[in-house]
Amino acid sequence: MSLNGKHALITGSSRGIGRGIALMLADKGVKVAINYYQNEAAANDTLAKVKERGSHGFLIQADVSRPDDISRMFEKVRDEFGRLDIFVSNARTDLPTFYQKPLEITPEQWDMAMNSQAKAFLLGAREAARLMNDEGRVIAITYSPGGRTGSWQPWVAMGSAKAALDSLVRYFAVALAPRRITVNGVSPGGVFGPPNVVEGGVLRSLPQDVQDATRAWHEGGWTPMRRLGTPEDIGNAVTLLCMEEAGFITGQIIHVDGGASIMDTVFPLEIQQG
């Protein structure tokens, strides 16, 4: 089914994964509301590339950790588009605002992670549903390993927030199913955009030695496809979930990680691969 003429709002779409999603949807003729927090130049660059693909859109500055900003964001979508067909909750607060170990994290850092993920999705999905006709699409960009593991200690707040996000996907899927609005999550593996400001991404914000070690780990076989993901990989998965043919898929967390989530961490890689 063609998505041409549909209307989408993607939070945090000025760069990184959100940008990849915006451009993939624009390729299909979707009009895109591009949300950004601070980087207006990156947002304008994304909008320009949306228009290069023959689609249209507009920018919305909003901090999704603030309920008033969320309400204002959806009011602008209503004024500009009149309706909404696709809502992608993608925005994530910057690393320094939450990145701290369990015994050291402050209540303010914890709240920032939760507010930018679970609360932002709760409020955003409710606002989106009011603007949607039947058969809309609501998608959360989550990170399921963060809620299942505990080894990445400074990720405790965001991991817990992503776990709450996974749970909210299921609750909203049930709540909106009578209207045939599907609600799903996409859980990326390691995603590495090109090394520039526009692409960004959590891995690019880590020290260079951490980036290099992460790339070597995945390319060495812990991701079976032996590469890190790209924003385009995530954009392709979101686009598939937006299709009419995906209308019976709801309440699911789709892992888009080249197989990383199915690896067994108990045995060394050389043993697993025989």
Would you write up a description of this structure?
This protein is of the alpha/beta class and 274 residues long. The protein contains 9 helices and 7 strands; from the N terminus they run E-H-E-H-E-H-E-H-E-H-H-E-H-H-E-H. It has a 7-stranded parallel sheet with strand order 3-2-1-4-5-6-7, with helices on both faces. Helix 2 links the parallel strand 2 and strand 3 (57-61). It is globular and about 55 Å long. The model has no long low-confidence stretch (mean pLDDT 93).
The fraction of residues assigned to DSSP E strands is 5-15%
What does the overall shape look like? Answer: globular
Strands, count: 7
Biggest beta-sheet profile = 7 strands, parallel
Overall residue-averaged pLDDT value: 93
CATH class: Alpha Beta
Secondary structure tally, helices: 9
How are the strands of the biggest sheet laid out side by side? 3-2-1-4-5-6-7
Rg, alpha carbons: 18 Å
- CATH names the topology as Rossmann fold
Give the topology string: H per helix, E per strand.
EHEHEHEHEHHEHHEH
In short:
With 274 residues, this protein is an alpha/beta fold. It has helices at 16-27, 40-52, 67-81, 107-131, 145-148, 156-176, 208-222, 231-242, 269-272; strands at residues 7-10, 31-36, 57-61, 86-89, 137-141, 182-188, 253-256.
